[in-house]
Amino acid sequence: MPGKFQLSTGKLARGCARRPWLTIGIWILISILSVLSIMFFLGSSLTTEMKFTSNPESEQGRQLLINRLRGPEKINEVVIVTSPNSTVDDPVYKTQVDLLALDLIGLGGEVLEGGTYYYQAHDESLVSPDRHTTILPLFMAGKLADAEKNIDKVREVTGRAAERSGFDVITTGAASNGSDFNKLSESDLQKAELFGIPIAMIILIIVFGTLVAAGLPLVLAGFSILIAVGITALTGQQFEMSFFVVNMITMMGMAVGIDYSLFVVSRYREELMRGREKLAAIEIAGSTASRAVLFSGMTVILALAGLLIVPMSLFYSLGVGAIFVVAVSVMAALTLLPAVLGLLGGRINSLKVPFVHRYQSGRNVDQGRFWTWITARVMHRPVVSALLAIFILAVPAIFYFQIKTGANGVDALPDSFESKRGYKILDSEFSFGLISPVEVVIDGDINSPPVQAGLSRLKDEIKSDQVFYGEPKVDSNDSGDLTLVTLPVSGAPDSDKATGAVRTLRQDYIPQAFSGIDAKVLVTGPPAMNLDYFNLTDHYRPIVFAFVLGLSFILLTIVFHSLVVPFKALLMNLLSVGAAYGLIVLVFQKGIGASIFGFQQVQVVEAWVPLFLFSVLFGLSMDYHVFLLGRIRENYIRTGDNGESVASGLRATGRIITGAALIMVVVFSGFASGQMVMFQQMGFGLAVAVLLDATVVRSILVPATMKLLGDWNWYLPRWLGWLPDFHVEGARPDDREEGEAEGR
């Protein structure tokens, strides 16, 4: 028989409580360093670009163009001038556009590297068919981050031109789109905080009944978010992070940071109510709730690690940011929280809220009448209850098989944003592909007759395809061994039209045109990079699923010393995650209830959302399973009564887990209330999954299946008997004494 493996979280908690000012001082110092890190490094750590860390075809072509033809990529921007009354042939129109062009040139080479316009180039492709609109293609200076910083200077010029001329002057392109997404992201983050924090505070007040106890989890969550963002700012100096990472850290930090502190504070107050002295209560809370927090955090981090497998900057940004904030939240719950409790002592119950505190203080710590009532009825009819729960989860999960992934891009911006208005004009009058064209790279001797013949055949194929806009533009390097064919396409670079054009080029036109020719032909450009991104997420989805499921199964087997409990937990979580996927499809793709929630109906689910949701939801769902099943297992070890252990576990954890789940639902709903459709999909999916997990799974499916399986829940083959016997919630001293007495 292996000995029981006890992590000394209780001793750690007691040590921090005995030296509270030292512990708190260390955390304050880390927070100050984090603030400095954010001030000096965060801005240069974030980007709106998505970079591959693998080497798909679009990346190969891009690198060839950088190394052997044009150098670093130019950031395309377009200024659109349109008038309902005048045409480009009117002198007043020409005068205003000439003045606008002079003002743009006056911005200097640090803002604009170059550009052209109709009256300079006399290029009819720069004028709309009705001649009321013209475009000024520009090249922004520097990298995308530089262009996003400088785009406001361009917009100041276009704004003055619009006031002066009375024409509509709009900018759109990579820099303006990125800038608008950044502004909308910040706005949605503020809205989520304003929505989530007050409601979370109300729930905490209802759970605890005192303002001090209710406010403490929020304060610790704030520390965790601040420090995680600071660490991310430093990490971003080595690996650029997606600008979404701050939103992800805030969301995950509010959710897990509040929940972890909630469990520990609740257990500490429970022990005080039992008459424990302060340090003893802190140590017991550390040995029980803090230990459960540690195992839950490990589970969440392992699930999030699945995102690091995907070779793309977006996924490792989201994964790393979420892992940082979960890890910091766990450390805060294990060290900072005991130190604060050591200072507060009994004052944790200060600032009582009338009526709420009176109700809470009148409850015995072991009471849980509602959960006792639910458990009794479910376990009385376990087969019917289990089938009902499975039906509730399986019906929406069916719609997952109709999911269509992609990117909503500039289309998902609100109509009030200038870059979207410009996109609509550009797409209807010209082609959005002018600023995000498909690029065909030919690596071979352009002067050889076979390559020239292949190029001619490719041009002929393209002419008959209406997806492509205008005449192809051909450029070669000085040595004549690399050629770029620029092909503007109809639609945004993430649209079905644009990505479909790339697919057709790769599968049909290029193989037919260059068959048997000694040249390597690659398709790159924004539409090709989007297609490779979509293909990459489709390819890695089952790999991430298998990784997360496998690691979770191993960890839960070790934690619960059972094969049945982890297998069952994985199946239940798959059901709740599948239901969340199906509801996303119903609401966002099919539009059922979208207007009720204030969401946009769109054609696709963001390609990163299913992967991110799976990792996060699996981790968070396991959170509640660890807390609940940990308490059930400790009771089962002590009493040997499976039915009573399930009932007492639900009774003991029901109110706290319900409060924790409601806080998560509120936090995620706050993010879903924003205007960015990707955050709407993510927040909605997380909220409904946690809600289903905390109600249908925990209150019906868990007790029903545990009743049906009985002692088989804790089955572990003898050949696995060498596994260490972890205790998620270490028993209280009086529990151990009772267990020993029963054994005697």
Account of the protein in words:
- This protein is an alpha/beta fold.
- The chain has 4 domains: 196 residues, Multidrug efflux transporter AcrB transmembrane domain (Multidrug efflux transporter AcrB transmembrane fold, Up-down Bundle), CATH 1.20.1640; 109 residues, EIF_2_alpha (Alpha-Beta Plaits); 252 residues, Multidrug efflux transporter AcrB transmembrane domain (Multidrug efflux transporter AcrB transmembrane fold, Up-down Bundle), CATH 1.20.1640; 88 residues, Alpha-Beta Plaits (2-Layer Sandwich), CATH 3.30.70.
- It contains 25 helices and 14 strands.
- Helix 11 runs antiparallel to helix 22 and helix 14 packs across helix 23.
Average pLDDT number: 86
- Give the overall shape: elongated
Strand adjacency order, main sheet? 4-5-3-6
Number of strands: 14
User: Count of helical segments?
Assistant: 25
Task: Indicate the proportion of strand residues.
Answer: 5-15%
Query: Mind telling me the CATH superfamily name of the largest domain?
Result: Multidrug efflux transporter AcrB transmembrane domain
**Structural class determined from secondary elements:** alpha/beta
End-to-end Cα distance, whole Å, is 19 Å
CATH topology assignment of the largest domain = Multidrug efflux transporter AcrB transmembrane fold
Short description, anyone?
The chain contains 25 helices and 14 strands.
Keywords:
disordered C terminus; 65% helix; 744 residues; Alpha-Beta Plaits; disordered N terminus; 25 helices; 8% strand; four-stranded antiparallel β-sheet
